[in-house]
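To: structure subgroup
Subject: Chain for Friday's discussion

All,

I'm putting the inputs and outputs inline so they're searchable in the archive.
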Amino acid sequence: MSRAQSPDRTVSESIGGKDATLEVYDADPDFEARIRIEREDRWEFGLHEDGVAELLTTTAVDGTVHAKPTIPQWVADSLYEVEIPEIIGIAGVA
């Protein structure tokens, strides 16, 4: 996905009094789509054909994910809002 590419869909919402933005990019060479979620940190996921989101990067743990982090509940809720109930590459949801 080119960083200059515009998202195909953007969802903005207020979660716990803080604005969050979810962007969906349909054109990705490795995944069905790519999803970027930002609030205090940025979380980026690749979406597989079966609808499972795979954590690729996050600013919460120094960029590329080497260890499986625990994602905040607001990230899981944001994905659930766009009908993505399963996430791989994480330790759990906090």
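Points worth raising on Friday:
The chain has a mean pLDDT of 85.
The helical segments are 73-81.

D.
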